[in-house]
Write a structure and sequence with these properties.
Layout: E1 15-23, E2 26-35, E3 38-47, H1 50-65
Antiparallel strand pairs: 1-2, 2-3
């Protein structure tokens, strides 16, 4: 998983869990993100690509949480 792999450009130490899946060419991801004692569940459904789902979650982390 790209958020948990320390060699990945998407690695984030605050990501504590993840589940990915595909259905009918839709790429989905659910991420558990923990920071400052708070937990966030971030979901991206029906992305058009594997890379797209990671970019969407990264954007949410950068925009909303940080």
């Amino acid at each position: 998983n790209k958020f948990l792999d320390k060699k990945s450009p998407y690695y984030n130490e605050n990501v504590k869990g993840i589940k990915t899946g595909t259905m009918a060419s839709s790429y989905n991801i659910v991420v558990l993100y923990k920071k400052d004692g708070k937990e966030y569940l971030i979901t991206c459904l029906a992305s058009l690509s594997d890379e797209g789902r990671y970019k969407a979650v990264q954007s949410a982390i950068n925009t909303i949480i940080k």
